[in-house]
Amino acid sequence: MYLRVCTYVRVCMYHPLPPPPRPTLHPTPTHPLQADEMHQPSLLPPSQPHQPAITLTNATCSWDPATTPPTTTTPLLHNITLTIPSGALVLVVGDVGCGKTSLLQAILGEMHVRTGAVEVHGSTAYTAQDPWIQNATLRDNVLMGASMDWDWYDAVLEACALVPDLELLPAGDLSEIGEKGINLSGGQRHRVALARYVFVCICVCILCVYFSV
To answer: Which of 143, 173, 182, 184 is the most exposed place for a label (fewest CB within 10 A)?
Structure first.
């Protein structure tokens, strides 16, 4: 747990530095994602430093549409009010089944907002507890079709604590990663996914990570 939290803190230390222009995405016929899937346009413009990036105002959310009457089996988030400023590192912790993942899904717009409001400023990326890794090199898993900027790429690897991992792989960042990241540890898969989002300068990065103590 200590190593993973420190990795996120390292990324936040790099966050105030002005990133390079957003890399251009170059999907190919063999690439599993298209440009609009790799970089979804945001509904609200990015927030300024220290301004709210995520805001929930008395939000009550459900997996069912608002037209469906709530039942005793319908999981709901009730009257959630939350403000997260741009550049902040926030950890949501709690018991199993208390609604942590549901809160993240509500922020992503995957749940139906029955009352109140949910606002997210800027582009958003999400990593589930089991990060998606494609059968390709580690470098390709970070770039995902984006144009290479070597200086920024090296800075991202350093910020995401991937440099020690590269030293353990036989071919560094050109090592082939098996299906679903089978030859990477859980922490390494999360660091690769984190580097993917930092490289393309995502405004809001949501990581659903289980910690073991």
So the answer is: 182
